[in-house]
Design goal:
Blueprint: H1 7-21, H2 28-35, H3 39-45, H4 49-72, H5 77-96, H6 103-110, H7 114-135, H8 138-157, H9 165-175
Helix pairs in contact: 1-6, 4-7, 5-9, 6-7, 7-8
């Protein structure tokens, strides 16, 4: 008997496939096999693979507006940076388990798709602009974002380095104090 899967189960499986194998790994047949269900379950929730891929990208694009900014609660300066850092410490493992979108997965996808790269570039500009609001300086914001990108890239090559993120995050707060 086939178990009932919800849309979130499929999204989690797709996020993991994207993270571990790139966009080519996000295939209905493969996801069905990984979830031990028939493809019919997929088509109950999604029109086609393209709809799933669009949803994966859109949830990543909207993550800042829908999830991160609201949790900062309008704070600015050091307090906002500390809250953002704590939030990222919680979110990194969730992305690695497929529970949330993964920057590493999206950036890898953007490296092989011009269309995705354009959307990622626009989303990154929004992220940097949000960091500017927190830090009070566009140069600091961009530098902090570049540190984040380095962490993401290194985590792909050396997964054990991800465990050091809490210490790295605390160091970022010390190195990038918001302007007063």
């Amino acid at each position: 008997m086939e178990r009932d899967l919800g849309k979130d189960d499929w999204l989690r499986a797709a996020r993991l496939a994207l993270l571990k194998g790139g966009v080519e790994a996000v295939r209905v047949e493969r996801l069905s096999r990984d979830l031990h269900v028939t493809k019919g379950s997929f088509y109950w929730h999604f029109k086609d693979r393209e709809e799933l891929l669009e949803l994966l990208l859109r949830e990543w694009e909207e993550e800042l507006r829908r999830e991160i900014i609201p949790q900062l609660g309008g704070r600015r300066g050091r307090e906002a940076l500390q809250r953002l850092t704590r939030l990222m410490i919680k979110r990194v493992p969730l992305g690695e388990r497929g529970d949330l979108p993964s920057d590493a997965a999206i950036f890898t996808w953007a490296a092989v798709s011009t269309e995705v790269a354009q959307r990622v570039n626009r989303a990154e500009q929004r992220r940097i602009e949000a960091l500017k609001q927190v830090l009070g300086s566009s140069h600091r914001a961009e530098l902090l974002y570049l540190v984040w990108l380095g962490f993401v890239a290194r985590g792909q090559r050396a997964p054990k380095s991800r465990k050091r993120f809490p210490a790295i995050a605390r160091m970022m707060i010390e190195l990038f104090p918001p302007k007063k």
